[in-house]
Write a structure and sequence with these properties.
Length: about 475
């Protein structure tokens, strides 16, 4: 029992020496020292019979700077059993290795802890920014629940016509009525209701304009959520034209024009007015769209009104050539990290997700959702939880589903020069431009052509992006 007490005392001394080393030095310096000591400790434990690993020359300047000359460094080496002799630190053959085993465990634990603290400190501004952004975007979803706005949207939507078109679809036998109405609403919004703006037409002569800068928003602009105003000068008469980037979905029902921020914003309102469960999707690489829950498919469907695209989530990566990183879907009841619905290149994508740690992001989303859902009825909370579990299982699939043809197309919305400048024309456009029809045909043949290119269902904030 005396021997056990001695070993316990030695282990305690090692632990206290490591604590002193950590508390007495800056985080980065402690991590460097600890990792250096661990190399010596591991060498001895891995090769206990080899004397060369039990000797450290004090003329080794790297060891001196990283360990021996910093506060607590020499004391730790002594606690491990090393002693000074003829300009060297030696570990005798008969020294008990238990203190080294304790050091191996404790040093690894403290290094991991210190690295997390260091990461947290470095990430703090980015964490704050992301937290604020997610909170604000989710808060914006409450706007679409205002009854008066929904009624305003319904007065714009030809509901009866869309129902008739849905009934007349050839896929009526395989798709639910709700999903068919969704497809018709999407097509109507793209082809008959909203207009894409590269440059606004001149209000004076109707001529073409080009962007020449910006202007401060007026009180009227701010009333409808425009945080910035673009100035487009007419190429014919020279008249400057204002293009406020409105964020008020009710105002957008009147203007009916914009870029992806306005499109997604107004389309979410139309979806909610029609009773669809909807999520606003925010992509950190400068794009926004929506997701709609399909009861028939029991999953969320990607839906991009700018492209008249439904359930083609890989189009941005495979077709447009985007280097995706963070993509969040937000509803009144939930925030979700949905990157793996849209990316099939795990290694490349995870390497680009370097703003915050994955552990922190997962925990903060759980926290946000807990706060949001606390006041919901138990049945609703249970329903959300079951859906979310199914979604996590869907996104965790090791092999992404086969691509469909539309997912291999480059971006369609916006002038070609603008799309090329953004690098979003995609591989099929590049192949066609280079006169390589064989390569283009091969690329398309790889897609799952069982789905229709245009109509298949398988299931913003304008100040946040330039799209």
């Amino acid at each position: 029992w005396r021997l056990s007490l001695i070993k316990m005392a030695a282990a305690l001394q090692v632990t206290q020496a490591i604590q002193t080393l950590e508390k007495s030095n800056a985080t980065e310096r402690f991590i460097t020292a600890a990792k250096t000591v661990l190399k010596y400790v591991n060498n001895v434990l891995d090769h206990p019979q080899e004397s060369k690993y039990r000797c450290i020359r004090l003329t080794n300047m790297a060891f001196q700077e990283r360990v021996y000359q910093i506060i607590g460094g020499e004391e730790l080496m002594i606690c491990l059993g090393f002693h000074k002799e003829a300009g060297e630190l030696l570990l005798s053959d008969n020294v008990d290795l238990q203190p080294l085993r304790v050091a191996h465990r404790v040093l690894n634990e403290r290094v991991l802890h210190a690295q997390k603290q260091k990461s947290a400190a470095e990430e703090a501004p980015r964490r704050s920014e992301m937290m604020s952004q997610l909170t604000r975007l989710r808060q914006n979803m409450l706007t679409y629940e205002v009854p008066a706005l929904k009624m305003k949207a319904l007065r714009c939507i030809p509901v009866a016509t869309l129902r008739q078109r849905a009934d007349a679809r050839e896929d009526a036998a395989t798709k639910s009525k709700s999903d068919r109405i969704l497809l018709e609403l999407l097509a109507w919004f793209k082809k008959e209701f909203f207009t894409w703006v590269d440059a606004v037409p001149c209000a004076q002569c109707g001529g073409k304009t080009q962007a020449v800068g910006g202007a401060a928003p007026s009180d009227e602009d701010r009333r409808y959520g425009a945080g910035r105003v673009e100035i487009h000068q007419c190429l014919t008469c020279g008249q400057p034209n204002r293009f406020p980037r409105y964020n008020d979905p009710g105002k957008l029902l009147e203007t009916r024009r914009g870029r992806c921020g306005e499109w997604a914003n107004c389309f979410v309102l139309c979806l909610r007015a029609m009773g669809f469960e909807t999520r606003y999707v925010y992509d950190y690489t400068d794009h926004v769209w929506v997701e709609v829950y399909s009861a028939q498919e029991s999953r969320w469907l990607h839906c991009d009104p700018c492209e008249n695209a439904c359930d083609t989530p890989r189009m941005y990566e495979a077709g447009w050539g985007k280097k995706l990183s963070y993509i969040f879907a937000l509803s009144v009841d939930q925030v979700a990290d949905v990157i793996w619905r849209y990316s099939g290149t795990y290694a490349d994508t995870i390497a680009r997700r370097d703003k915050v740690s994955e552990d922190w992001l997962r925990d903060i989303i759980v926290l946000i959702n807990t706060q949001i859902q606390t006041s919901l009825p138990p049945d609703r909370r249970h329903n959300i939880a079951m859906r979310y579990q199914a979604e996590l299982e869907e996104l965790a699939l090791a092999t992404p589903r086969p691509l469909v043809a539309q997912e291999l197309q480059g971006r369609q919305s916006g002038e070609e020069a603008w799309r090329r400048q953004r690098g979003e024309t995609g591989p099929t456009a590049a192949m066609a431009a280079e006169g390589d029809p064989a390569a283009l045909e091969t690329q398309l043949e790889r897609a799952d052509l069982k789905a229709s290119t245009n109509d298949s269902v398988k299931g913003t904030d304008n100040d946040d992006n330039d799209d």
